[in-house]
Design goal:
mainly alpha; flat
């Protein structure tokens, strides 16, 4: 099997998952405060705003792509790559997207470097 066919589903799943997590955070920020006596419908509508619904759809698409990736990759390789590179993508987005504007410490960056080194060792199959 060509390498692109082996790794492309995992790359797609990774991007879908990272984007879904970012959209989930945007959805959390979009949710407004509700009165304590707000109706159940108001609470559900506030929680399931557009960004959250998009995130859920992206998570569903991620599951399909990840399942396809597992047809040709060992889970002991695919899962660490998904989790660690997802961390890097989400952190990069959290720092660079104005809507999130998060800060990352040197300690966090050091931890990501260690994780990346570990994944590199695991993924060398």
């Amino acid at each position: 099997m060509p390498a692109i066919q082996k790794w492309l589903p995992l790359a797609i799943a990774l991007v879908l998952n990272a984007t879904a997590n970012i959209m989930m955070k945007v959805g959390a920020q979009m949710a407004g405060p509700l009165a304590t006596d707000a109706s159940l419908l108001a609470k559900v509508s506030n929680f399931l705003n557009a960004a959250t619904v998009v995130a859920l759809a992206l998570f569903a698409a991620n599951i399909i792509a990840y399942r396809k990736a597992l047809d040709s990759l060992d889970i002991s390789v695919a899962y660490p790559i998904m989790v660690s590179l997802g961390l890097v993508l989400v952190t990069f987005a959290a720092v660079t997207l104005p809507i999130l504007s998060e800060r990352v410490t040197v300690r966090q960056l050091g931890g990501m470097v260690l994780i990346a080194a570990g994944v590199w060792l695991v993924a060398r199959v």
